[in-house]
Write a structure and sequence with these properties.
434 residues; mainly alpha; Fumarate Reductase Iron-sulfur Protein, Chain B, domain 2; 2 domains; binds iron/sulfur cluster
Length: 434
């Protein structure tokens, strides 16, 4: 009974903390101005199924994709076992499904154990890649102490959790041999390899280790579930809405500014121009509340994998730009603004803005708008859209574009092209090459 009460209290506390944090993340995303688009639901569902559920874009790099797939499938399937943990915890039972499922239970447990071992090995290989081989994209300048530690905590925790499952099953099998009260699970291949480690221990010690591993695993999973809502690992959930709400237009499409479009239409006397347009508001984005809700959702979905940065021509050629950092900075700014709101302070009155205090002009000006980062991202994040919005603000609100660009702007305004030629001379080259 004491164990059941302890379990109910632990579960309730975890559910409460997670629900509160999810609420905070939703409120942060709603700080953005343009709401999430939900038109064309069939295309959106297809994207979500292929990219988030099917991991389609991960397979551009085969070996990490396979290892990631093990962790992902392991996460989904092993959580079915957690269902039994929760029911056992609430009802005070032990392996409640075993008598009902019979030999199918043995098959299921062996599948879970295979996945647990696959997750464990994949995590160890990922830890080696990050910390021993030091794959370059995990050591970029924006991967400071915390992001690197965060990734290691996640991988290390998963290793420990998988070891706890195998330890629990190994000691449970030994107890099944000596104590008639223990439900028979049948032979479990991987955990039985650990049985020699515990052979010969007194029954009380075995019971203690089995119970300790059970509690460790379930508390570990609940603590991990809370932790990931503060970590880059949140992508395991946010990748789903992120791919659903992702932009459906072709990658090269840039969002027009309706006010500017209307002004051009008025200049050209087009019939669908609105002669009384609404107040223009701010052009581009200076802070997170100028960005769209999709931009902010993107920031929470970022896995910090660095695939975007490793493909970015500006980054490769040594410019001070990392699309991954753009997403990390956007998320950091949201969290900083939320801390002020939670303290009852004016949200944006800290004298800081996303532009300048988190992302510099040097960074946004280095972008070639090539879309390589968008193409590379495994969860359909678009760092370029944030860069373009910040650049729009600098160019249109501050007239602060680099001096070398101003000639180009003037040419576009007067000659409708970046070059200083009259539109009437545009086809001269064809005459010259006749
Ligand atoms: S669009 Fe900009 S940030 Fe993205 S890869 Fe190209 S240069 Fe880098
Ligand atoms: S934006 Fe995408 S590719 Fe870049 S680090 Fe985040 S998840 Fe990875």
């Amino acid at each position: 009974m004491i164990q059941q009460i302890a379990f109910v209290l632990t579960l309730a506390a975890a559910v409460f903390i997670i629900a509160r944090r999810v609420g905070t993340i939703r409120k942060n995303i709603r700080l953005g101005r343009k709401p999430l688009a939900d038109d064309r639901p069939q295309e959106r569902l297809k994207n979500m199924t292929l990219v988030a559920f099917g991991q389609k874009k991960m397979f551009k790099r085969f070996i990490p994709a396979i290892l990631h797939l093990f962790i992902y499938v392991g996460f989904l399937v092993i959580n079915l076992e957690v269902l039994e943990f929760v029911i056992d915890g609430l009802a005070g039972t032990h392996r409640i499904f075993a008598p009902y499922l019979g030999s199918f239970y043995t098959v299921l447990m062996n599948i879970f154990e295979f996945l647990a071992v696959a997750v464990l090995l994949s995590c160890v290989i990922f830890l080696i890649r990050r910390n021993v081989i030091k794959v370059k994209r995990f050591w970029n300048y924006e991967m400071t102490k915390w992001p690197r530690l965060d990734a290691n905590i996640i991988l290390f925790t998963e290793v420990i959790l998988m070891l706890a499952i195998l330890t629990m099953n190994a000691t449970d099998q030994l107890l099944q041999q000596t104590n008639g009260h223990y439900t028979q699970t049948g032979s479990l291949f991987f955990s039985s390899m650990l049985m020699p480690l515990f052979n010969g221990l007194p029954e009380n010690t075995l019971i203690f280790i089995e119970r300790f591993a059970w509690w460790f695993h379930i508390i570990g999973i609940l603590a991990f579930s809370i932790y990931i809502t503060y970590s880059k690992h949140l992508h395991i959930f946010i990748a789903f809405p992120n791919t659903y709400y992702a932009k459906l237009e072709p990658k090269g499409h840039m969002n027009n500014m309706p006010v500017v479009t209307n002004e051009v239409k008025l200049m050209l006397n087009l019939p669908d121009a609105n002669p009384n347009p609404a107040e223009a508001g701010r052009f581009g984005a200076k802070d997170i509340n100028d960005l769209s809700q999709l931009n902010l959702l993107n920031a929470y979905a970022c896995t910090e994998c660095g695939r975007c940065t490793s493909e970015c021509p500006a980054s490769i050629t040594g410019k001070k730009l990392s699309p991954r950092k753009i997403m990390m900075d956007t998320r950091d700014r949201m969290e900083d603004v939320r801390k002020r709101i939670d303290k009852g302070e004016e949200a944006f009155a800290d004298g800081k803005t996303l532009l300048n205090d988190y992302i510099t002009k040097e960074e946004i000006n280095a972008c070639t708008s090539c879309n390589a980062c968008v193409e590379a991202c495994p969860v359909m994040i678009n760092p370029l859209e944030i860069i373009l919005e910040l650049r729009r603000y600098v160019a249109m609100e501050e007239s602060g574009a680099p001096a070398s660009w101003n000639g180009m702007f003037q040419n576009i305004e007067t000659s409708f092209a970046p070059w200083k030629f009259s539109p009437a001379d545009r086809f001269n080259w064809a005459q010259e090459n006749k």
